[in-house]
Specification:
Elements: H1 12-43, H2 49-74
Length: 79
């Protein structure tokens, strides 16, 4: 009987276990981080929050645009 599985790739069962562990770790870390960020933002003056949020969104957008351009340059023929 021949098995159609590459021994260098993880099995479906292993991938499912990795996904469940990753989700559990992300949830375990996201909750305290969320409360910490909320606590830190509540300490800031209300007039400072909108410009700070705009700055963070602008920096994230610039980073994503830069990565998109870098990906386009790496793969010729895909515009």
């Amino acid at each position: 009987m021949q098995i159609d599985h590459d021994p260098h790739e993880p099995s479906h069962k292993a991938l499912k276990l990795i996904a469940i562990l990753t989700a559990a770790i992300v949830l375990a870390l996201a909750v305290p981080v969320m409360f910490g960020v909320r606590w830190a933002v509540e300490l800031l003056p209300a007039d400072l929050i909108p410009p700070l949020a705009t700055l963070v969104m602008g920096l994230c957008g610039g980073f994503l645009i830069g990565r998109w351009d870098a990906l386009r340059q790496r793969t010729p023929g895909r515009d």
